[in-house]
Amino acid sequence: MATLTSLLYSLAFYATLLIIPTACTCSLGYDLGKPKNHVPFFIFGDSFSDAGNNNYINTSTIVQANYWPYGETLFQYPGGRFSDGRLSVDFIAEYANIPFIPPFLHPGVHRFSDGANFASSGAGVLVETYRGLVINLKTQLSYFKKVARGLKQELGDDEAKKLLSRAVYLISIGSNDYMFPFLANSTIPASSQTQYVGRVIANFSSFIQEIYKIGGRKFGFIRIGTLGCLPALRIIKPENKGSCLEEVLTLCKLHNKALSKLLIKLERELAEFKYSNYDFYTFLSQLMKYPSKYGFKEGENACCGTGRFGGVPSCGGRRAVKEYQLCDDPNDYVFWDSFHLTDRAYQQMAEQMWNGTSPMVEGNYNMKSFFESVAP
User: Fold this and answer.
1) How confident is the model at residue 83 (pLDDT cuts 50, 70, 90)?
2) Is 38 a catalytic residue?
3) Which superkingdom, per the lineage (predicted)?
4) Strands, sheet with 218-222, edge to edge from the N-terminal-most edge strand
5) Which end of the chain has the lower number of beta carbons within 10 A, N or C?
6) pLDDT for 26-45, tens place per residue?
7) Residue 330: inside a domain
8) In which domain, by residue range, is 102 found?
């Protein structure tokens, strides 16, 4: 426990030293050769969606995955994804027959005909979550606004508006807002939990409405998973003897319930707002309880890490703790490292998001229906 504590508590110190860039060193544009009704894919969020944006900011290795063995299964090199291979957003792109969406901050010329990935590992809805170490949601929104302005300049207001309304917006964020206080040797008192969740949801609501105002109409959301049962969270309190961290699970449930209410409210208030809200909480709990049902051999321990459950986030040996163990076959595992899933688990998650129906997907749409609906 001391090793995990020293590793994570050092983040507060690093955050005073590091500076996040305010723009990418890239050129913006649109591929005019794409079909008229092409559907772009814009991605916002945290490490469940980050394709490597954190490679290009000054930050700590605790929120980077650009070193071995990350990416070992598919890419054969560490591109910046917190997985042995792909993320759920990569599979969604495959199913939609578009290329993997590259990180927005990747240097070079960007053609945003297929969309953009603004996600940043460690990011939260609240700006104070890993402040100074990540690209927070407010900054991700500013990047998207820059892309939208560029599209309007290149295509004209009317065509850009049509493009942005055809696009699919997938947002996976909030987990770090609830984990960070516990990982930073703090807590969220029971008396303050509802108020804290309310603040996260209020900020999230403002973000969604900003995207809608710019032109977004088709929104995909991912409910927060069973964070208190992640390998890293299960070892925080030795007195729990490896049990899930109930305080965090309570926050997850409160958040997911509040998010559902918010989306129903927005659907009622915003005439063209459409949403798909994937129940990741139920899916992850099922994977952990019944791994063999889904083709896995191990549902609790991480493939890469050290300590009980592989809960010390040392995968790759580039963080404060250098020692780590690596399993022989990540396909046998639900968890790749102390916080994240394997390529295979992400694929199963993406399949449900793509084809899912109620109750696994809340709302009248799944990701497949969003990409197949190209009007206007």
Assistant:
1) very high
2) no
3) Eukaryota
4) 115-117, 41-45, 168-172, 218-222, 274-278, 361-362
5) C
6) 555 555 556 678 899 999 99
7) no
8) 37-284+343-372
Catalytic residue among 106, 110, 255, 340: 340
Task: Confirm whether 304 is domain-assigned.
Answer: no
- The tens digit of pLDDT for each residue in 249-273 reads 999 999 999 999 999 999 999 999 9
Examine the residue annotation and report whether 337 is marked as an active-site residue of this protein: yes
Catalytic annotation, pick one of 46, 90, 114, 337: 337
Whether residue 238 contacts residue 309, with contact meaning beta carbons closer than 8 Å, is answered with: no
Residues near 310 by beta carbon (within 8 Å), at least 6 away in sequence: 231, 301, 302, 303, 304, 325, 335, 337, 338
Q: Catalytic annotation on 47?
A: yes
Any domain includes 134: yes
- Report the sign of the C-alpha dihedral through residues 279, 55, 207, 148, in that order: negative
- pLDDT band for position 376 (cuts 50, 70, 90): low
Look at the chain and report how many structural domains it folds into. Answer: 1
In the set 46, 47, 84, 110, the catalytic residue is 47
**pTM given for the model:** 0.92
